């Protein structure tokens, strides 16, 4: 017995089609014949293929359910029926026909494992038995046997086995390796089969198109070599070895424009970024050279390195002008991706383009970072959700097969491909050899066509290499000697393609002529071709000029007239008869109706809701997202009312804030996926593209913001001083020490205070309903776009002391400092011996303790805005008490946390000579809060009592 036969027999005994699974498969096939929709998609596809296999009599009759036939024969047997004998030759041919279908399915599923993808040819072809004809029992004698191939797109209904194998190998094992069979959508699978098999994955470009591809390769290589010789040793994160990426970007931009796309937003890391700036977006080479020469203008407080810079331009395409935006980004790999998606969504919303027909996100990744950085998983998880979809993203991997110094696949990842992460969203992948630029361009075409057709993510994985080190100062042979021996012998993609075109009769000097022309252009600081439109401006472009150069002290009229308040309140609290709210929600809205009429004080939820209502009624859209934002983590908001009589899971919601005025601006509230980093990055990107929308991200608990710390550090806090990017994003972070343990107490106020400088953000801790109303309105009414960080409360949401009378909404504004509210103490201000300054919930604990102890010589001041520190307002509040000898800062947080270390110098600056500054709060702690309830209560009691006691510990005298 031959080895092939024994393998096949072992396969029959163990494969899912045979052995112990046979009865299960037969039952499923019966179900399929009765109702094809009753079986899983993968089985339906397999059974569909069987229907194209001719019957043993050569006819094209479709199979019918077997069970009735079997029962009929069984009945005849009882009655002495005839015995049927099947010819062995026909049975063998039937087996081979089935095997052919399995062979086709195998190439479609795993053919890319044999694809010619690596320009360095470092690895041997893996053993994939199911791609071998012998695996199915075929021999050389079967090569000319004709089989049915009507379920393929090779253009023939019947093909000899030899021709079929050649077609499958050309399609799936050439320089393009496709992965798409894991998608559950049959239409998508057939689409890919038609596109790939119809041309056997081979491009057919004319001579002009080929010249253009060579021109883009020449530009990509030419810029790198020019910089390498002129700016020796300077970091630029060269693209050399991956030049086909520039040809891909050119194809993507031009084809997208031809398909009606008007804006493309690009996110990418440092590798090849300078090349994209010059050769894709049209940045003038002389401007880039000025950055290398340190002669470029330096107008920002901090600035950033050249390979983090963003850029925008308008380029001409066959379909009209396309606006290109390359997002600014830090060195934290992949973190720009959700920012880009948010920017795209804002542009889609501005254009009323819900499917993304006019705006395209393009994300460029490194191979190691794509699979290694968790933000990619979070961003992919957003792709098809209602609040975050952008109509599909084109992902391009510059796969240079090495992550910094790691190229051993045993260390790089735990998957076959760096792209395997996208299988979670069933995004198809086209792996392509970077040394075949025509295949790269074809794959780019197909990827874009798929995105525009199905509005889903798609991945182009360009397998290439990195000619130099991670940066130009590295010596990669230290850790990759074998790889860099092969790279040293590689002539370069441009040279290989130029030689190919020369061999095709397109001119022996074509490649050299292009190199000389590009070098001459670089010497002049110009482009060889310039598609940039200098005078074009889209009607959808946003004018940021009204928001620049403003100060945080600028006033904003945030009060609203009483008539407008009552009109909006009535609309806000009216629930249609067709909606049956939960009784608890009905009670909330009934109470809010009374608040709207001025019958009772306004609570936090109503104050917040009225801020939103007044903004959308005035034309300002509001976008609020977070893990429980519709209801609110602490059930205070109820922005979405759920009909208790709903009959379908996807209907029966009512959003009052979408119904407060005719022609109002949109109000969008989104219950996000369970993610902080990607969602916050998304909202930052959205706010950075739309200064006219109040964009809010709300943490479920403020503590959870630390899961998005990279976004906070690299974008929110420093984006303006590094890149000049204004942004009005608002963060709502529930914060308060109420015995809920280490992870549900602190929004880590100290981290924001540490990041606060250069008037880069606003950090507030409002303590009343009117304060949250005014600060939210202030964020839009003022023409100042700075991030707003709000430490929002928990227990104060229902604390009657934190409610506000209606008059505080119809007049007044946000108070950065709330002075002493007890008139009796203020009337005897000269008797006050101590002033307690505080922020947040602890204020109410202090007032309660002062009342209980009948203390009359202590005033309490609330600092509602912690940064920028309101010196004038604080000094005015403190000045009332000239005889006060002590100032105490009291806080809930441990001494090494909260505002204390960052606010003491501001307090000290406003003290009178001789006054002493002390601290009362929790002792320094490695944990934000204790988990033991009794210990929490003891600490809280002690810090409140300490605020009234004799100063001890650290005391600072003015």
Walk me through what this model shows.
With 958 residues, the protein is an alpha/beta fold. Helices cover 40% and strands 13% of the residues. It is built from 33 helices and 25 strands. The strands form five sheets. It has an eight-stranded mixed β-sheet with strand order 3-9-10-8-7-4-6-5. Strand 17 (762-764), helix 27 and strand 18 form a beta-alpha-beta unit. Helix 8 (207-230) packs across helix 9 and helix 8 crosses helix 19. The longest helix is centred in the first third of the chain and has 24 residues, at 207-230. The termini are far apart. The model is unreliable at 1-16 (pLDDT under 50).
Give the arrangement of secondary structure elements.
Elements: H1 3-14, H2 22-34, H3 41-50, H4 66-78, H5 88-110, E1 146-148, E2 158-160, H6 161-172, E3 176-179, H7 186-199, H8 207-230, H9 244-258, E4 263-268, H10 273-279, H11 285-293, E5 311-317, E6 320-326, H12 336-351, E7 359-366, H13 367-372, H14 374-382, E8 394-399, H15 409-412, E9 429-433, H16 437-454, E10 458-463, H17 481-489, H18 493-503, H19 510-523, H20 562-572, H21 583-596, H22 604-617, E11 622-626, E12 641-642, E13 653-654, E14 667-671, H23 677-689, E15 694-698, H24 709-716, H25 719-723, E16 730-734, H26 749-755, E17 762-764, H27 769-781, E18 788-792, H28 807-810, E19 817-818, H29 823-827, E20 834-838, H30 842-852, E21 858-863, E22 865-867, H31 871-879, E23 886-894, H32 900-909, E24 916-922, H33 933-948, E25 955-957
Parallel strand pairs: 4-6, 4-7, 7-8, 8-10, 9-10, 11-14, 11-15, 15-16, 16-18, 17-18, 20-21, 20-23, 23-24
Antiparallel strand pairs: 1-2, 3-9, 5-6, 12-13, 17-22, 19-21, 24-25
Helix pairs in contact: 5-6, 8-9, 8-18, 8-19, 9-16, 12-23, 20-21, 20-22, 22-27, 23-24, 30-33
């Amino acid at each position: 017995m031959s080895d092939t036969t024994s393998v096949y027999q072992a396969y029959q005994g163990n494969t899912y089609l045979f052995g112990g699974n046979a009865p299960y498969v037969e039952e499923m096939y019966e179900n399929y014949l009765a109702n094809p929709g009753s079986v899983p998609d993968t089985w339906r596809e397999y059974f569909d293929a069987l229907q194209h296999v001719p019957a043993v009599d050569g006819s094209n009759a479709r199979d019918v359910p077997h069970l009735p036939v079997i029962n009929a024969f069984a009945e005849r047997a009882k009655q002495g029926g005839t015995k049927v004998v099947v010819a062995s030759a026909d049975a063998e041919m039937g087996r081979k026909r089935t095997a052919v279908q399995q062979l086709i399915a195998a190439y479609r599923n795993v053919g890319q494992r044999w694809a010619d993808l690596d320009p360095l040819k470092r690895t041997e072809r893996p053993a994939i038995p199911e791609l071998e004809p012998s695996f199915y029992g075929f021999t050389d004698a079967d090569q000319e046997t004709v089989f049915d191939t009507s379920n393929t797109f090779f253009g023939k209904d019947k093909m000899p086995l030899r021709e079929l194998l050649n077609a499958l190998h050309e399609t799936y094992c050439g320089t393009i390796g496709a992965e798409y069979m894991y998608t559950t959508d049959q239409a998508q699978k057939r689409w890919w089969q038609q596109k790939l098999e119809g041309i056997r994955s081979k491009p057919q470009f004319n001579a002009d198109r080929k010249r253009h591809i060579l021109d883009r390769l020449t530009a990509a290589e030419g810029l790198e070599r020019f910089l390498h010789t002129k700016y020796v040793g300077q970091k630029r994160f060269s693209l050399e070895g991956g030049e086909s990426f520039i040809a891909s970007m050119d194809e993507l931009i031009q084809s997208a424009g031809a398909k009606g796309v008007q804006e493309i937003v690009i996110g990418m890391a440092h590798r090849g970024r300078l090349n994209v700036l010059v050769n894709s977006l049209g940045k003038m080479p002389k401007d880039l050279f000025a950055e290398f020469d340190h002669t470029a203008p330096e107008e920002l407080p901090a600035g950033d390195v050249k390979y983090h810079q963003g850029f925008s331009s308008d380029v001409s395409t066959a379909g009209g002008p396309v606006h290109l935006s390359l997002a600014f980004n830090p060195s934290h790999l992949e973190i720009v991706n959700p920012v880009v998606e948010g920017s795209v969504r804002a542009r889609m919303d501005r254009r009323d383009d819900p499917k993304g027909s006019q705006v395209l996100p393009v994300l460029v990744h490194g191979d190691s970072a794509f699979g290694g950085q968790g933000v990619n998983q979070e961003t992919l998880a957003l792709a098809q959700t209602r609040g975050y979809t952008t109509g599909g993203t084109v992902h391009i991997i510059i796969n240079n097969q090495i992550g910094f110094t790691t190229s051993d696949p045993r260390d790089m990842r735990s998957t076959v491909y760096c792209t395997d992460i996208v299988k979670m969203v069933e995004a198809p992948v086209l792996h392509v050899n970077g040394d075949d630029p025509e295949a790269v361009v074809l794959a780019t075409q197909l990827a874009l066509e798929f995105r525009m057709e199905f509005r889903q993510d798609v991945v182009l994985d360009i397998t290439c290499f990195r000619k130099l080190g991670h940066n130009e100062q590295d010596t990669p042979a230290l850790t990759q000697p074998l790889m860099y021996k092969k790279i040293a012998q590689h002539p370069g993609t441009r040279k290989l393609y130029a030689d190919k075109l020369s061999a095709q009769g397109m001119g022996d000097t074509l490649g050299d002529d292009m190199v000389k022309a590009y070098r001459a252009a670089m010497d002049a600081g110009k482009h060889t071709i310039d598609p940039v439109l200098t005078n074009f401006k889209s009607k959808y472009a946003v004018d940021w000029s009204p928001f620049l150069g403003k100060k945080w002290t600028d006033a904003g009229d945030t009060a609203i007239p009483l008539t407008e308040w009552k009109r909006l309140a009535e609309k806000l609290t009216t629930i249609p008869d067709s909606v049956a709210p939960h009784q608890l929600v009905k009670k909330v809205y009934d109470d809010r109706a009374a608040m709207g009429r001025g019958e009772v004080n306004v609570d936090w939820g109503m104050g917040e809701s009225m801020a939103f209502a007044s903004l959308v009624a005035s034309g300002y859209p509001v976008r609020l997202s977070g893990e429980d934002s519709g209801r609110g983590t602490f059930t205070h908001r109820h922005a979405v009312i759920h009909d208790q009589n709903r009959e379908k899971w996807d209907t029966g919601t009512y959003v009052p804030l979408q119904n407060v005025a005719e022609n109002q601006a949109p109000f969008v509230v989104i219950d996000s996926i369970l993610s902080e980093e990607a969602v916050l990055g998304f909202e930052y990107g959205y706010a950075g593209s739309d200064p006219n929308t109040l964009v809010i991200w709300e943490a479920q608990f403020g503590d959870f913001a630390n899961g998005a710390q990279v976004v906070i550090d690299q974008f929110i806090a420093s984006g303006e001083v590094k890149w000049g990017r204004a942004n009005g994003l608002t963060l709502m972070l529930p914060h308060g020490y109420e015995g809920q343990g280490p992870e549900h107490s602190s929004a880590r106020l100290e981290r924001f205070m540490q990041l606060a400088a250069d008037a880069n953000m606003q950090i507030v801790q409002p303590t009343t309903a009117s304060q949250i109303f005014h600060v939210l309105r202030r964020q839009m009414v003022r023409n100042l776009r700075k991030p707003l960080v709000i430490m929002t409360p928990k227990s104060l949401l229902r604390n009657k002391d934190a409610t506000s009378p209606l008059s505080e909404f119809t007049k007044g504004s946000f108070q950065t400092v709330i002075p002493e509210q007890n008139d009796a103490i203020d009337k005897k201000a000269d008797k006050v011996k101590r002033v307690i300054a505080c922020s947040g919930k602890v204020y109410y604990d202090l007032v309660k303790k002062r009342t209980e102890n009948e203390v009359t010589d202590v005033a309490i001041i609330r600092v509602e805005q912690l940064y920028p520190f309101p010196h004038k307002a604080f000094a005015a509040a403190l000045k009332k008490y000239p005889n006060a000898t002590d100032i105490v800062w009291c806080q809930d947080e441990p001494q090494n946390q909260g505002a204390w270390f960052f606010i003491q110098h501001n307090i000290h600056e406003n003290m009178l000579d001789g006054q002493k500054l002390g601290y009362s709060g929790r002792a320094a702690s490695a944990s934000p809060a204790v988990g033991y309830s009794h210990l929490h209560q003891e600490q809280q009691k002690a810090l409140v009592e300490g605020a009234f006691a004799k100063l001890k510990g650290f005391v600072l005298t003015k």
